[in-house]
Amino acid sequence: MAKTYIYPIVLLVLMLSVSALAYGGGSAAIAADGKYFISGIVRDSVDNEPVPMASVSIDGSAAGTLSDIRGVFEMTVPDGTRCLIVNSQGYRRKVVPIRKNRVNVYEIKLAPQAETLGEVVIRKKKYSKKNNPAVDLMERIRATQKVNDPRRNPYYNYDKYERITIGLNNITPNSKGKENAIMKRFPFLWEHVDTSEISGKPILPLSVKETSSQIHCRRSPESQREVITGLKSEGVDEITDQESVRAFLQDVLREIDLYDKDINILQNRFVSPLSPIAADFYKFYITDSMEIDGEKALQLSFYPHNRSVFGFVGQMYVVPSDTAMFIRRVTMRVDPEINLNFIESMYIDQEYERGPDGSRLKTRDDLTMEISVVPGLQGMYARRNVAYDNHNFDRPDDEKDIFGKMAETSIQPQARLRDEEFWRSVRLFELPPAESRISDMLTRLRSNKLYFYGEKFIKLMASGYVATGHDTKFDIGPLNTFVSGNSLEGFRMRLGGMTTGNLSRHWFTRFYVAHGFRDHKWKYGFELEYSFNEKRFHSREFPVHSVRLNSSYDIDQIGQNYLFTNQDNFVLAWKRMEDNRVSYSRLNKLTYTLELENHFSVIAAVANDCQFSSRLLQFAVTDGSASSGIMTQKNIYSFNETWGELTLRYAPGEKFYQTRSHRLPINLDAPVMTLTHRVAPGGAFGNRWHVQRTEASIMKRFWFSAWGYLDVMAKGGHVWSSRTPYTQMFIPNANLSYTVQPESFSLMNAMEFVADSYVQTDLTYWANGAILNYIPYVRKLKLREVFSLRTFWGKLSERNNPRLNGDMLAFPGQDVAVTDVSRTPYAEVGVGLDNILKCLRVDYVWRITHRHPGYKIDRSGVRIAFHVTF
Q1: Residue 868: which of 788, 777, 784, 773 has the closest Cα?
Q2: Where in 6-154 does DSSP place strands (E)?
Q3: Would you tell me which of 219, 373, 583, 773 could form a disulfide with 769, CB atoms 3.0–4.6 Å apart?
Q4: Which residue, among 796, 812, 802, has the nearest Cα to 624 in the 3D structure?
Q5: CB count in 10 Å sphere of residue 141
Q6: Of 609, 627, 633, 611, which is closest to residue 807 (Cα–Cα)?
Q7: Three-class SS state of 212
Q8: Distance CA 463, CA 657 (A)
Q9: What's the CA gap between 156 and 590, in Å, rounded?
Q10: SS3 of residue 190 by DSSP
């Protein structure tokens, strides 16, 4: 669920940046000395596949070049050149007229050369993996993966240089011959146009991110550390949190290990052609041979049995005489019919060389994608190009310092301050001119007022806060809480803000004021935080080491706790039933937080919470006992709860997108474990009742290769004290809105169940089209299945039941905690369709237990969610 919120943030920045270009407001192809630059791609006219090693020459001249493995070529030609001559073995010679213009990009299609053959009888042969030399070859390659794995050595080190480029794709006149709206408004952008490595189409880079690092691997004890020595980022996404964007892009555009059973990319799992199930998932053919480094290599081609599933179409090049079955090169792409969102084409190219000990050493990992977010609108281009060098198997001199770090990735203090001389020394491949001038392009764009203010609007939409200046010291927000509503307050308005690191790197404040137009009460919240770590912009930046003081007076929606969003979010104001379990709360809280680089954290807090009755929720205290047969209630206006709490949390490998108020998990692959204990001493600090409770939870995602994944959440707790107020017992989270919310129940009433011992589970299986991909015609809709099961087992012991004991906080209604879920747990299931219009999830949810409890409930219903994913 969390990535539902992340994709819109990233896509919003990119798409609105395009809009700002289109409505805001000399050619790079021109060279000196009467020459100009041209580029393009050579394709097969039948299957549209690239034609590598095609000869491209100037008519009447010996000058020319060859297309690369992708079919892409680049060359400089003199002014007045009229045509190119294109040749390739097995294809007809083609003459291509050219003319100097702003784009100078050509797509050339060669027709296969027909040959006269004798009479041939063709018999269609059904594919079989048995007695198939291509499958045998694949199995031989897979069997040697440990033999030539460089990590089998005690130590393995190498340098890594990574560049991620994001831009606009296919900057050409439209079908009616009209010039692109962006380029028409900003003609100087032609100076920054480059060429796509996939299609040869002209692209306009908008963002370039470079990372230089050193990788150190140790076999025993097994560990890997990355030391980032240089970080550089330029582009239109500078207005977002750069650390979060970098974490998101590195997770989405991961490096590819061909020898893994699954290839993790675009936050999906693709079956590797060397997976243990590859022989059943793919069809393999030996299709050709080519010379690599003076040796004849076989071309092993593969493609999935079902074109809609998460697999690749590609080729591996292997020298058959090599006993280690050493892979020299791999090229892969996705099928056009794959059930994958936004990706028009994707190309992967890897190269390897042999180490002195026979190890396979990856020297290049290149991923290129063409993206279409909305059909008919400007497309996007993304490329993640990684090069590796200086491979060695030496023991690092500073081994203790390197492997002694808790975090797998560390950033050197001067990494973001590197000069151009450093970058020239670490770049393992050349930076194209168009990408080297991003900062100049942005300076010229921002001189346009409409673009300048358009960028401000994009920043506002992405962050949810309104800046009050250039180096803003105070921001107003969050915007999505300005207007909302609930059953107690009616229409509610709220205004707030926060200070930034431009005012102080250590001291931070937040505040808000709110007013309900039905209860006519003013509410407030104030926060003062001191960070022991120097922050760049706001106090929530990882890692947190701080002391925070909160003071607030606001409503308390008991039994409703929404993750990843604020309870004032206007979307949650639309509810399926009236919420009358709402009180007022005056909370003062002091919190100490310590987060470590390995994502282990300790949170210690002390708080005083004074709960006040409202017109919807009247607090009362029981009097009498069940044994006497007489139980009465006495209304009270308020009561105090003063407690201390200790929380331990561990999430190894966790990645998240950091907003100013929340952390949205980028993926749930890493386990998240928490343990919390709370104590409120009875008779002290104003406490009327004693409280002692413990709660634990774990969350993890489990992948089933190309057939989706299962999100598992389990938690439980126990109250050790007696006569505990129900506000301190365990109340399952009831979702009263029509949306799907994580870790909440869609058909449960607020405060329907109260327990002092409980176990809760939440299972959601995202099938990624495991069924629908195999249904003809239906699979063209690219729908995906989603199944959910949520359960709650709870027990309310006699010692904590206010219906059996006097001097306890009485339940606020006869329908609270009357259903026994200790014998038959509460359960609800959901079946839904995901990926509707690439952005919607619609579930139908059934309550399968306790369907007739004797009070009003929802037994079933439709729930929706905005869910964007690849």
Answers
A1: 784
A2: 35-44, 55-58, 64-66, 72-78, 83-87, 94-97, 105-110
A3: 773
A4: 802
A5: 21
A6: 633
A7: strand
A8: 12
A9: 47
A10: helix
**Whole-number pLDDT of residue 92:** 86
CA angle centred on 559, ends 556 and 565, rounded to 5°: 70
β-sheet bridge partners, residue 207: 166, 235
* Rounded (10°) CA dihedral 127, 128, 131, 132: 50
pLDDT tens by residue, 8-49: 455 545 554 554 454 444 333 444 356 777 888 888 887 777
Strand, helix or coil for residue 572: helix
Q: Which residues contact 258 (CB under 8 A, 6 or more apart)?
A: 272, 273, 274, 327, 330, 350
DSSP string of 438-482, one letter each residue: HHHHHHHHHTSHHHHHHHHHHHHHHHS-EESSTT-SEEE--GGGS
- Token digits of residue 800: 């904590």
Say what the pLDDT of residue 847 is: 96
Residue among 112, 115, 77, 236 nearest 168 (CA): 236
279 within 8 A of 129, measured Cβ to Cβ = yes
User: 820 vs 481, 695, 724, 744, CA distance in Å?
Assistant: 37, 21, 19, 19
Can you name the residues that pair with 842 across neighbouring β-strands? Answer: 833, 864
Q: What pLDDT score does 628 carry?
A: 67
**How far apart (Å, rounded) are the C-alpha atoms in residues 601 and 585?**
28
Instruction: Give residue 514's identity as a one-letter amino acid code.
Output: A
Interhelix angle for 3-23 vs 242-252, to 10°? 110
d(CA 186, CA 236): 15
Nearest by Cα to 216 from 47, 7, 392, 380 = 392
Go through the chain and tell me how many residues it has.
870
How many helical (H) and strand (E) elements, i.e. helices and strands, does the chain have?
10, 43
Q: 300 is written with which tokens?
A: 């092993």
Residue 68: DSSP 8-state? -
The confidence score (pLDDT) of residue 373 equals 83
Pair 760, 706: CB distance under 8 Å: no
Contact 361, 159 (CB under 8 A): no
Identify the H or E element spanning 9: helix 3-23
- Classify residue 179 by its DSSP letter: P
3-state secondary structure of 8: helix
pLDDT at 304 (0 to 100): 92
CB count within 10 Å of CB 508 equals 23
Q: Are 213 and 227 in contact (CB under 8 A)?
A: yes
CB atoms within 10 A of CB 277: 13
Nearest CA among 28, 27, 31 for reference residue 81: 31
Which of 150, 263, 145, 260 is CA-nearest to residue 215? 150
Residue 350 neighbours by CB under 8 Å, 6+ apart: 256, 258, 329, 330, 331, 362, 364, 365, 366
Return the HEC string of 392-404: ECCCCCCHHHHHC
Distance CA 261, CA 719 (A): 44
Closest residue by Cα to residue 185 from 28, 20, 27, 374: 20
Give the separation between CA 108 and CA 94, rounded to whole angstroms: 9
Q: DSSP string of 275-305?
A: STTHHHHEEEEEEEEEEETTEEEEEEEEEES
Distance CA 583, CA 619 (A): 9
Distance of CA 644 to the CA centre of its chain: 35
Inter-residue contact 802 to 809 (CB < 8 Å): yes
Q: In angstroms, what CA-CA distances link 360 with 226, 298, 523?
A: 20, 17, 64
Taking the C-alpha atoms of residue 228 and residue 696, their distance in angstroms, rounded to an integer, is 35
Whole-model pTM over 0.90: no
- Which regions in the chain score pLDDT beneath 70? 1-34, 62-63, 69, 101-103, 114-125, 172-181, 197-199, 559-577, 626-629
The beta strands (E) that lie in 596-668 are given as: 600-612, 620-625, 630-635, 638-650, 656-658, 663-665
DSSP single-letter state for residue 727: G
Q: Mapping DSSP to helix (H, G, I), strand (E, B) and coil, where does residue 151 land?
A: helix
